[in-house]
């Protein structure tokens, strides 16, 4: 309807057609010759027979023409089209009020309230940390979870973690269009439109289908609301003036754009913000398997504060991310470390931690390290929930060679042992691995292999004869052990890839 401005009923006196109108009427009343006929948009009831001369009525290639059967009521059709125009006019009127509220600086509440009137449902504005910046009248909110979120003024970590596990949200986050969200815990459909300032995400508009169902036209209106909200946020720093909001906004900027990191940090310093200094590290928490049901609202936030302190954690893509300036994250007391591990294991949360750094502008680089720690940790130590990038950096260097033959990185001596084992049904390859892993302690190695010490001594003599390498030299021992580690990692990577391919 956007290309048309009104509808006109076709009468005998009609002599002029304009392309901005839709003309509705009986085909019998359509003038044979009228100005603009060749470009007219027509909705006709076919009630007229072809002329007796046998010559069909003239048709124009530029016309937009739809014909209906003679049984249709022309006035009912006209009223339906007219109603569409009235609805469009009403929408434009409310959109005008929203735009006026934005221009006049009436604030987010005025824009959001007008949007709620326009769409006939409650509308909420959340920032990137899921805090409520504005909402329409909440008396019509029937969803108890959203009612709780609105009364508190923010969404709990448990709620956010559950939302990020939804397939509709994961798919919607990849799109620039508004998208609908359905969940088993609520019968209310949600419509989500991203709020962006330039290319930077700053929040979401949420439309709750509490009063009436979400319609297709609401997708466009939610997007329009998001654009106006973005304009209001861009010109009004009131909504971002708390120190926590400023820091979260900076962290998002650093994670999104590594090239402008120095500029963002300098701007923050000039505005008087206190930034993290000293020995920093990026923490990335994967909550993909966290189960929030059965826990009180706010449980996850309380537990994370207990183990990580008052760190400002933000949700970035599907992860929770924070920057720590405390040494205790990477070197916690033994008793607290065991409690943290128990918490992570119990709730199926995985934690990746970057190497330490001192320049906050390099935050994205170390965020990617923490992600790598998560990724590699799943392969190398699937039962270990907390992985430091420093412990897996060697594996990261090997990752580009994942498709290579293991023999490309395997020490020649280990290849000799593998070939011997294959030919003689022996186990010298693994025997040497456990011997090196246990610092060449005979009894510990024999226990782990479930063999007698004399059996182990015999195997070690065989290994010595085959590879002829002095294991008392630290360099030799290191090269062999690292070769074991690299080969094992590449084998696990390929196995994980095969499993993923089979699943897909």
Task: Please give a structural write-up.
The chain is of the alpha/beta class and 504 residues long. It has helices spanning 74-103, 108-119, 144-152, 157-164, 167-172, 216-235, 243-256, 261-270, 299-308, 334-346, 363-380, 389-398, 412-424, 428-437, 442-449, 453-467, 474-503; strands at 6-9, 21-26, 41-45, 64-68, 123-127, 132-135, 179-183, 186-197, 200-208, 281-286, 314-316, 319-324, 350-353, 386-388. It has a 5-stranded antiparallel β-sheet, with helices on both faces. A hairpin with a 2-residue loop joins strand 11 (314-316) and strand 12. The radius of gyration is 34 Å and the shape is elongated. The two termini are 43 Å apart. Mean pLDDT is 82; it is low at 328-334 and 498-504.
Q: Which residues form runs of ≥5 with pLDDT under 50?
A: 328-334, 498-504
The general outline is elongated
Radius of gyration: 34 Å
Main β-sheet: number of strands, strand sense, barrel status?
A: 5 strands, antiparallel
Query: How is the largest sheet built, in terms of strand order?
Result: 6-5-9-8-7
Report the β-strand fraction as a percent range: 15-25%
Distance between the ends = 43 Å
Tell me the number of helical segments per DSSP (H or I, 4 or more residues long): 17
Helix content: 40-55%
Strand tally is 14
Mean pLDDT across all residues, rounded?
Answer: 82
Structural class: alpha/beta
Pfam families: HTH_30 (PF13556)
InterPro entries: CdaR-like_regulators, PucR_C-HTH_dom, PucR_C-HTH_sf
Protein name: Helix-turn-helix domain-containing protein
